[in-house]
Amino acid sequence: MSTVSGARIRSNRAGVTAKAETLISALPWLERFHGATVVIKYGGHAMTDEALRHSFAEDVVFLRYAGLRPVIVHGGGPQINAALAANGIESTFTAGLRVTTPEAMEVVRMVLTGQVQRDVVGLINRHGPFAVGMSGEDANLFTAERKLALVDGRAVDIGQVGEIVEVQVGAVRALLDDGRVPVVSSIARGDDGEVYNVNADTAAAALAVALDATKLVVLTDVEGLYADWPASDDVVDSLTTDELAALLPELSAGMLPKMEACLHAVRGGVPQAHVLDGRVLHSLLLEIFTDEGIGTMVLPGHPGGPVLEDATWAGNGSTV
Ligand SMILES: Nc1ncnc2c1ncn2[C@@H]1O[C@H](COP(=O)(O)OP(=O)(O)O)[C@@H](O)[C@H]1O
Ligand SMILES: CC(=O)N[C@@H](CCC(=O)OP(=O)(O)O)C(=O)O
């Protein structure tokens, strides 16, 4: 046998060993998260690049085959913006929430449940036949009341924007027990007969609390929470709920509902919430199965301490 072919065999062996080591290094996490429910918020900005969309879908299917119970709550802000613009409907945001007129609500509902949710379901099912779409209206998953935004201490009307007051998780649990991956749109019904537009970060947190999830993961288009945005891009590695609560009044734009969602999820009993960079290939797998330490992690301020009393998160106790 020649030296050249011998060298090739040796280097292949080294490659195979490295692959086996990579697989084995995931063992502690596979043990820890087997059977765990993980709620993943898939942001509208994280779903624009084709390679990243497939990497997301592969990660979700991988999690499912690895024995976790992933639940997706999808966003669609940029897709709604495009549809509103195409229909000549103006749109503005107040405190990170879309001011939603009845005319805009029709477009929001159509885009989220009829377009984005279908896309996400189709994407996942190309890699494994698990995804089933649901609107928050289905089986009364989300019940909401009209939400007012706080601007400089004043309550401001922002239209048909909902604050979730009840979560009935029966249908989601049934899908999970059947081995499915629920893909949920953040639309809610109201007892008043209205349909409400709920921020998808907020909806994901309410669902994570109601499902007693092990983790909430929020995928977005930045590396995590920037400490001094936009002046610097230093990412906050981890912070407690108490530290986050103190920081909230300083946060702006899209990060405000995201970090509020992480705060409420962890205060509502979810052990960890993460904001991850959806622009990194396989960021979900890296977060769950390695100690890469990507993104920003929120942990309880007082482990074992009291849970925040907040009517918005009543979903915690009102499960079916
Ligand atoms: N402190 C901050 N750290 C990181 N991003 C911030 C911060 N404050 C505001 N942002 C903005 O929030 C955006 C993420 O929110 P959003 O656009 O709603 O994303 P998504 O569609 O993923 O929900 C970032 O792209 C960034 O422009
Ligand atoms: C009330 C409110 O703001 N609702 C959001 C719902 C979609 C969403 O949250 O999408 P992203 O996660 O991609 O931002 C909206 O209308 O844009």
Automatic annotation (TrEMBL):
The keyword DNA repair does not apply. The record marks 41, 258 as: Transition state stabilizer. Keywords: Amino-acid biosynthesis, Arginine biosynthesis, ATP-binding, Cytoplasm, Kinase, Nucleotide-binding, Transferase. Residues 37-277 form the Aspartate/glutamate/uridylate kinase domain. Pfam families: AA_kinase. Catalyzes the ATP-dependent phosphorylation of N-acetyl-L-glutamate. Belongs to the acetylglutamate kinase family. ArgB subfamily. HAMAP family: ArgB. This is Acetylglutamate kinase. It comes from Actinomadura yumaensis.
